[in-house]
Structure formats: C-alpha cells, structure tokens
Write a structure and sequence with these properties.
alpha/beta, four-stranded antiparallel sheet, 14 helices
Length: 392
C-alpha cells in the first residue's frame, strides 16, 4: 500500500487538524448535499480550521457587534501588500479597486461594464461551470476556445474565437480563469502577454478570475494579468476565499488596469453594499497576517498531490492525472475506464465518493472528474480505495 507522506516540521498542517467526525458536523454544502455514507471530495471547500488571525478578526467583530456595512480600503491595501511580497507585483493600485460581494458576482458586474445583452464572452473549456451559468443568465452568449491537449491556452484557438466573437460588430469579452480551474494550470507571463496582445488586436475586453492566485505550488509563479504588458484595459477579480477557505464570508475585490479605471468607476454604488463587512474583515486579516498558515496548507497540498499520483498509479493506472501547479483540485481523465461520459456518477453510486462531474465544465469535460485535494491524506487514500472498489 502507498505510504502516506508526513508534513515537514514547522507550522502544523491544517489539512490534518480535523477528524472526519468533526467535519461531518459542518452544515455547509460540501457536507450536507450527500448522505453521511458518502465521502465528499467535490465542491471547493477545504477540510481545515480557520486560520487563527482570521478567527480572531471575526471573533473580535462579534464581541464588538461590528456587523454593519463595509467601508474603506483596508482590504485592498492588504491585497496590495500581499501581492508585492508574494508575486513581486508592486503596481496594484488601491485607488483602482472596488469591493464586490464575491468573485463571480464581481465578474458579472465587470462584464456588464464592458458588454451588453447578447454580446459574446469567450471562455477556455474545460472551465469552472459557473462561467457558463452566470454568463448565460445575464443574457450574454458563450464562445468556447478550448484548451490545447497540454491543458494550456491555445493561442491559435483563442484568436479564432476572438475573430468569431467580434465578427458581428458587438462588444466582446474574454473571461480568463487564472490559475485555471479545473486543470490547475498556471499561465506564464509570456502566455498572458500574448493574450493581452490578441485582446487589443481584436478589441476584446479581458476579465480575469484570479481567485486561486494564492494557491500555487512552490515551483510555479503566479503572474497577475494586470501586471503584463498590454493589459492596461483589463479587469480582474481577486479574493482570499480559496486560499483561506472563506467562501461563507463573502467579499472580493475588483481591480482595474489604468485603461479600465473609467469603466470601474461606472460600477453602480450599490454593488459595494453586497459584501459582508465581517467577510471584509476576515479576508483582510487573511492577507495581512495569514501567510504562515497558507504556506502550511500549500505544503500539505503538495503532499496530497504526490500521494494522489502514487495511489492512482498503484490502484487506478487507467486514470490520467497531470498534477496541476495551482488550486487544490485534481482533474482526472477517466475515459480509459469505460465508465461513459459521467464517471462521477459511477463513483458516487458504486463507490460512495462524491466527485465533480466533468460534463458541466464544457467541451473536453466528458469522461473526466474533478477531485478536491484539500482533505487529509487519510481521506484521499480512502477516496481512491472507494473509486477502485467502484470498478470491481
């Protein structure tokens, strides 16, 4: 049997802090969607306790009754400082930011600023399913530019999608997922600069979802889209949500390049009423004081990636897995197993393990599943055991 790696000395691994019994007491989507005998490794929630600085900020707010409306730039200032230290990005302009309820609602607001009803929005499938849902619900149409066989942006395919998107003379946008969900691909500075050049050539406005930016392996380098040459008219969304498991504490930041400042200024004032004030406090504390905790999570995720690779090689060699450089999600190609377009359904009903079906991720998703790595090594091991048993 594959051995479970141990976390290195230092900050304790938050992924080992909670037992399965403790986690099953949670009332969030991950733990209450399926019956108790199902092991949930699907939706993007991490099996971790809150980082101490975040818990302290929330507790202090509760003790003070500090539960009013959000105001000020502390969140943006914390992000700017984090970006400078973490990514070497010293040009995050606090004055070109705005608080929004969360990243996807921020995406909606940014797309409203640069497109109109019926206009096209280009996406790179397989990609986060809400990209399709939110875009179509706001009366825009999706234009697909599938990733290449190497799971990276195919610039030729993207250019053709841009060409189609602007063919009728409407306003077009490109919803960039960076780092990419579900593949864990980290786009390089060269790739992003090429994207910016194409966008400018075709008059396409780029809106970058960078929610997974803090969750990048030690060997990879996250590059903010707004930091590359040619991205001056770009818009981006960032949050501490994924890095510190704060999905239930709603708050995100919209960022504008210098050429998009006027667009961001047109965002309706009431959008800023949607974020949670307590969420803003939590996200600010995470970015300002939670780096050591985040690093411990990242180290634990690296262990889990290696563990999953070993377990699949030993027990499910037919599954193709290219370990991503970012996110805590694993994209598994199960087509060789002969389970049809939706292997997640088989793993759920035969193995009692819940994974995300690849079908809603768009073109290239059939026959795939997405597995959440933000769990203990014991849970990852049990999940692969159940997946293997489902094939018996």
């Amino acid at each position: 049997m594959t051995s479970i790696p141990r976390h290195q000395p230092g900050e304790p691994n938050p992924l080992r802090a909670l037992t399965l019994d403790q986690l099953r007491r949670r009332t969030s989507m991950k733990w209450r969607t399926y019956p108790a005998d199902v092991l949930p490794l699907w939706v993007a929630e991490m099996d971790v306790p809150l980082a101490e600085p975040v818990a302290r900020a929330v507790t202090d707010a509760m003790e003070l009754g500090d539960t009013g409306y959000p105001v000020g730039t502390a969140y943006a200032e914390a992000l700017a400082a984090f970006a400078g230290k973490r990514w070497g990005w010293d040009d995050l302009a606090v004055e070109r930011t705005a608080i929004v309820p969360d990243v996807m609602l921020g995406v909606v607001e940014m797309l409203k600023l640069v497109t109109g009803p019926g206009d096209p929005v280009v996406v790179n499938p397989p990609v986060y399913p809400p990209f399709y849902q939110f875009v179509t619900h706001m009366d825009r149409r999706v234009v697909e530019a599938p990733l290449g066989a190497d799971l990276r942006i195919d610039l030729g395919t993207l250019e053709e999608a841009f060409r189609r998107a602007v063919a009728d003379g409407g306003r077009a946008a490109y919803l960039l997922c960076s780092p990419h969900n579900p593949t864990g691909t980290v786009h390089t500075a060269e790739e992003l600069a090429a994207v910016a050049a194409l966008a400018e050539r075709y008059g396409v406005r780029v809106v970058a979802d960078e929610i997974h930016a803090p969750v990048v392996t030690a060997g990879a380098r996250f590059v903010p889209y707004l930091s590359v040459p040619g991205a001056e008219r770009g818009l981006a969304l960032m949050s501490a949500s994924k890095g510190w498991n704060l999905a239930g504490l709603k708050a995100a930041l919209a960022l504008a390049g210098p050429g998009a400042a006027a667009d961001l200024a047109r965002m309706p004032e009431e959008v800023g009423h949607g974020p949670s004030h307590v969420g803003v406090l939590a996200h600010t504390a995470a970015l300002r004081d939670g780096a050591a905790w985040l690093d411990a999570v990242l180290a634990g995720l690296d262990e889990n990636r290696r563990l999953l690779t070993d377990l699949l090689a030993e027990h499910l060699p037919g599954v193709v897995h290219h370990a991503g450089e970012a996110t805590y999600l694993a994209w598994l190609d199960c087509r060789a197993l002969g389970l049809g377009d939706d292997p997640a359904d088989v793993f759920l009903h035969r193995g009692r393990v819940a994974l995300s079906s690849g079908i809603p991720f768009g073109t290239g998703g059939a026959g795939h599943v997405r597995l959440n790595l933000a769990a203990s090594p014991e849970v990852i091991t049990e999940a692969v055991r159940r997946m293997t048993a489902a094939l018996a």
